Amino acid sequence: SFMNTSATITLNSISFSNPRAIVDFEDDGTFETCAADVCSNVSLSGTTATFNVTHFTSFSTQDVLSCGNITTSGLHTLSQNLTSIGTCINVTVSNVIIDGAGYFIVGSGSGAGILSIGRTNVTIANLTIMNYTTGIYFSNTDASRVLDVNLSRNSGGLLLDVGSDNNIITRLIANNNTNNGVRLSTSFDNLFINAN
Prior knowledge:
By secondary structure, the chain is mostly beta strands. It has strands spanning 7-11, 19-24, 32-33, 39-45, 48-53, 58-64, 68-70, 74-77, 82-83, 89-91, 96-99, 104-106, 112-117, 122-130, 134-139, 145-152, 156-161, 168-175, 180-185, 191-193.
């Protein structure tokens, strides 16, 4: 039909700087990365993202996560392994979901894999963090979650520091860290479920 032809999609008011096209093939609200043979020429000009598609269905964009500051709330998904000298990801806003999608964040022995200071509702899921001073460092970060994360070969795996309260840690593996797997310092009412 005339609706199932190629088109250029334009999305306005994009709040992130590294967009990736995503698609909902079943129109059921479940989006996935749009392959290059379906979505191509993704570009960003100011706050407007454009890309070409081979047919029509539901399309959107999401931020492609790389090392640096997260400055927008919402979902941030790794699409590859990340490496850094010093801290890789610094969460500077609340209401953030970091989906590692099974990838690795690997450091050079200093900094934090993921750092969050003074934030609320930060979720870190589905990734492995290794070779940092601290794999995940929360300071005064509340009502947050760590889910299906492996922290290994760091000096310290997970640090819940100074007022990091009411967090839920589920299916955490913190092994082969030099000093400690998990450390709580002046942090209260944190729940650990199936943490090793």
